[in-house]
Amino acid sequence: MEPAAPAEAAERVEGAEEIDGAQLLDDLVDALVRYVVLPDVHAVVAVVLWIAATHGQRLWGHAPRLVIRAPEKRCGKSRLLDLVEALCHNPLITVNASTSAVYRSITAGDPPTILLDEADTVFGPKAGDANEDLRGILNAGHQRNRPALRYNAATNSVERIPTFAMAALAGIGVMPDTIEDRAVIVRMRRRMPGEHVQPYRVRRDRPGLDTLRARVSAWVRAHAELLEAAQPAMPVEDRAADTWEPLIALADHAGGDWPEKARAACLALTGDRDGAGDVPITVRLLMDCRTAFRGAGALKTADLLDRLTADEEAPWATAGPRGDALNAMKLGRMLRDYDITSAGNIRFADGTQAKGYRAADFADAWARYCPTPGLSAVDDEADQRPDQDRDGYPSHLSQASLPWSARDGSNPWDGSSRPSTPSRPGLTSKATAGTGGTGTRPELKAPVCIVCREPLSLDDGSHTHPVCSA
Q1: Is 158 within 8 Å of 46 (Cβ atoms)?
Q2: pLDDT-derived band of residue 457, with 50, 70 and 90 as boundaries?
Q3: Quick one: residue 425, left, alpha or beta (phi over 0 = left, psi -120 to 50 = alpha)?
Q4: I want to staple 365 with a disulfide (CB 3.0 to 4.6 A). Which of 93, 141, 262, 338 is the partner?
Q5: Are 270 and 290 in contact (CB under 8 A)?
Q6: Which residue stretches of 20-76 are H helix?
């Protein structure tokens, strides 16, 4: 850990090691709810832990973002950002900033906490792509050791500009998806007539918040070594775990009921984001295709498009190149990145052949990008096949290409051991399959359909009933 700067040493509080962390976080809760109404207890817990985490951002490998958004004005988002500014570490608040100004404001040793109000004017639909560089800074700065490189012609050298810093954004509507993917998201709402808060006045209320901020800073710094080494058990994975790890570490160190509250908030707010429609348009397409394939093993391209555009709440009726309905070319282009392509000459139940898509080709993408809650990847694929019993299917998310091994009695490989070489029967003197060269012909089993596993009366080489291949 780096030595404390003079400004940090001035904020030390006598007896910081003896401060009750759980009570301190409770005091932060009281300070917030006195002046603003947050949507629920999970949002309160998340904001309190995020504020505390800013005082130890040099300890973390990731700098979580805080997104405070609302559907309309007068929902308290700016007031909440005022309180965050009063309580967080070294705040740098602005309503607008150039990319170069933000670059120069982030220092390598002890970066400020960047607070961007009216963020919808910077990243909203009217701004277009004008602030992509600023978005790139906020994305890169989520993880340590992701500097920006700039060439300095005056010195004929390459400069490494640090980007790592915690940041909070407040605005109307959603922020860019790449930012929200790295953020704790709080959805503010307008207060009900019966909900009352105390007016916030800087001259009157700021001194008390300054004292509380100093206590939080002293407590975090007094336990810096333990917090830096913490490896909390996380209830989520991947980027969500990176974002929430500093908050969970602080809650665990504070003790009391904070570890349980922190994990409940993590699950609730992460689940809210995943379930609120904040997904990329291509993932939305995968989800809607899964709905369109219900009960069908394959669909003609025209039929799939008809089912997609028939949903009045879906965007596909206007997703075409000219604002018209989604067409086959754009559908294919959107699915190509997931290794899903249309197949020609699929034979359908009505006897026709046409280009179309098979549900089995979507199985891997469905399992990876939009898994059905409570179902494994194998279940998800089996759900697209009519009249199939899915009971007893094993869960092998990374092996969606082997869904039917359970039907023929074999055990899918889970990676824990190397499969042994299968034994092969010898041949009789007549070159027919035998058992170990004994000359006894084994009992031959009737061929079965690779889809429904029922006997085939005639195998034309496809190993499939005509109905099943449709």
Answers
A1: no
A2: low
A3: beta
A4: 338
A5: no
A6: 21-35, 41-54
